[in-house]
Amino acid sequence: MAIRRLLLPLLAAFSVALTAFYVTDIVSTKSYASSCEMTYSWPVYTPVTWRGIPSHAKYQAVRVDMKQPRDSLSGVPVLFIPGHLGSYKQARSLSRHLWDLDPSLFDVFALDFQEEPTGLNGNLITEQATFLNDAVRAILREYKRQSKKTNKQLVIPESVVIVAHSMGGVVARTAETLSNYKRRSIQHVVALGVPYGNPSFPFDAEVNAVYDRMHNKREDDVVYVAITGGHKDTLVTASLTSVDKLLKVVAESLYKAVDLETRELMSDPSIRLAIAQEVLVGVNSEELVEINSNVSLHRTYVQDGYYPGEYVDYALLLPQYFTHLLRTKFMTLVVIMYALALQVFYAQVAQWQSRFNFQSTSSPGDLNQDDFPSFMSMMHPISHAPGFLKSGAEFVSSSLGRTRLGLSTAATVMSAALALAMAVFTGFGKSEVSSSWEVTDRLTVIAELIVLYSYALGLVYAFTKLFSLLQRFIVSPVVSVLDNVTDRLKLQRWMIIAIIHGVVQLLGYIRSSNMESSGVLASSVLAAFTVFVTYLVALGGNVSGTTDQQNMKCSLFAVLWLSIFPWVGKIAYFAGLLHLPPSGLSNDLLVEGGSYVAILTLLTYLISLSLDRMVPLPPTAFFGASSGQDAASAYGKVSNNSSVKITAENCPKCVFEDGGPGAVLVEYTNHTTRRVMVGKTGEVVYVGPTFRVVSCDCVYRFKTSRDFCDFCIRSCRLCGGGSGNFQEAAKYKDFLEDSKVELAMHALVPMIFQICAVVQVTYGLYRPHLSFYLTPVCAVALVIYHVALLHPIEARRIKNKQRKKTSKKKKSSTKSKSKAQQGPATTTAVPSTTTTTTSETTTTTSRNKKKKKRKSGTSSTTSPLIEEVTPSS
């Protein structure tokens, strides 16, 4: 038990220490001196205004020259594509180095993407790729137009050289998959720190769809020279090589790839690739055979992020294994934490539903307000482990015998082993896993999953402790103050939602002078997200209700909070639409924005239901509702009856030392167990306490009474045992038979959470965006649970509670109004005429009161009930 209590605190300490060391290493790595030299340039940026250049509401093409602008086109076109939050002005260094090699050999262009967060949303990648294809077509057409206009034999290029940074490389590769792409218009791409393998922010569904299309693209003659970041690149975690003066070397590789006689890019892709390897990697053509033979080893170094012996030079705190794991699998932690929250919520609801079973509850009065387990208590692996894993662990432990470790530890170890084995041999949802997976790779993945699961479990425990402190001292006081303000202003929830929507729409009109229909849609999405976040904070800071309801709110808050990551890219995209709205509203954009508003409204409605009520009671809680002895009527109530009820545990007549296979025994002592007369000699032998049966499940375990134990076949009028138990059990069986559909529907709701958790940790372990689809599924299940599966008796009780609350509010408001109307007593001087009139009025009212008293006195003799009601009225 001590190990079980200390497991979560130890994991939390391990996770916090690991995170602190990792952050310290990142900070120290950023502080290292850079080997790059400063490039000084004199850039001139000229917006391209050719007739064939595409017009776009957000994007534009810019020409980058040195010292003075040029109008003519005479060299090889080079187009720079910025990345995530990148600017077109980053092309100035590349332009300077190309200008140093030959001022007229290259024509440098750049695309202005308004510094959009390209890595957060796939729609931005698609829009930028579409504009890239149009810009490439316009640049190539401009070469033809100027050649005809000047009547000179100018070299008309067939393609444009692309130099892309970060997500700009993904934009360039995506452009080849679109319908407006002109074949062979892009033949050479230099990618600087481009995450071609997997996205750096994998929580957006559109980004993952872009990567799927990019990976399924057929191979062509385009040469991709990918130079990944060094030890300072913490987002694109790969180290291809260590090259001094990177842009200067890139410019040299482009210069050597151009035929100086024809002033064209070399058409043979193998020659261009060999030149890039020679310049960047530092090998000649004779050594290329050896390089190609060691491609697999080189890719291993790239995946690790460091070459052999390179890691030691950085003097980091963490070992290389943990550094590589956190740099490459850090986003997987969020996936595991989200699946863990789903599994914990499933375990809580399932255990809470089973609490109301007739077998587990001897009487309705045994129920109290602490039946829904807390989120913290269910975080232990043995508490939230699936049932079949627990069964397998119990079977193994029973077959091996009880060891010193105990059943709980053995079950924990067995559950973890089975889960890891199942995940490994199903492939974890990893797209690059092949059929010929080596044993060492499997063991490596198992070790990674053990570390990641332990790390995620410790982080969740630490965050839960931290949020409990924030909830107590910050969140709850703020939420209570806001609740008091809304109560004083008499603002209902729909009014608050309308106010938020109105404020966001007003800010949208202020931000954008030309508010299009797309801007209105973007404002609606942002307003719906603001409402959802507001309700989510209210859910986390609300401490009203019973203990069970608070535990349920805490678990639901954890699930919804961990599912908010996929919304970051979508909100960033619609915020950009609000800043620069397109001219029209397409059907795809309308469907996408409308679906987001619907999902956010669904989540907000679920939070609103959870703020007011507990999850519905299962049908088994209403067994015996006709007699008023159901568990639902006793749930949440404290019995004030001080009389001791005689049960099988304290009945003096029902003392049985043996029971059936499922019997529950307690220690028992009386005069018969204290001494025993032995034999003819009359020797008295004193013995210790014995055990007696207090409950047994033979009625549910066996079909016929012949197999029942003596305790179950007894007949006791004092405690109601025997035939009374048989009748109750028969009624309960008939009740379960009649409520099969309701029981299945109630059990399906928590099962949906478990199914979603299993899908997330198997198929979606490396697809974090699946939480965007799994959360609405769970929300729909809970909403149906609250609305459609609510028992009629419970619905009537909820209505009665709401009526009582509204009546109390009305009474309190009327009392406050009456006090305000009466006001404080004041003494003022009045004229004599007013005093006379007031005295006459007082005498008149006193006469009327006397008449009313006489009438009431005469009527009281005939109807005493009226006499009691009249004064109160």
From TrEMBL:
Matching InterPro entries: AB_hydrolase_fold, PGAP1-ab_dom-like, PGAP1/BST1
Localization (cell): Endoplasmic reticulum membrane
Membrane topology, from the record: Multi-pass membrane protein
One GO term (biological process): protein transport
Transmembrane segments: 330-349, 405-425, 445-464, 494-512, 518-542, 554-573, 593-611, 743-766, 772-793
The keyword Hydrolase appears for this protein: yes
UniProt biased composition (Basic residues): 799-818, 847-856
UniProt keyword terms in alphabetical order: Endoplasmic reticulum, Hydrolase, Membrane, Protein transport, Signal, Transmembrane, Transmembrane helix, Transport
Residue numbers spanned by region Disordered: 799-873
Known EC number: 3.1.-.-
Record bears the keyword Membrane: yes
Residue ranges with Low complexity bias: 826-846
Domain GPI inositol-deacylase PGAP1-like alpha/beta, chain residue ranges per copy: 73-248
Signal peptide: 1-17
One of the record's GO molecular function terms: phosphatidylinositol deacylase activity
Gene3D superfamilies: alpha/beta hydrolase
Gene Ontology, cellular component aspect: endoplasmic reticulum membrane
Function: Involved in inositol deacylation of GPI-anchored proteins which plays important roles in the quality control and ER-associated degradation of GPI-anchored proteins.
Family named by the database record: Belongs to the GPI inositol-deacylase family.
PANTHER family in the cross-refs: GPI INOSITOL-DEACYLASE, NEGATIVE REGULATOR OF VESICLE FORMATION-RELATED
Protein name: GPI inositol-deacylase
Species per Swiss-Prot/TrEMBL record: Phytophthora kernoviae 00238/432
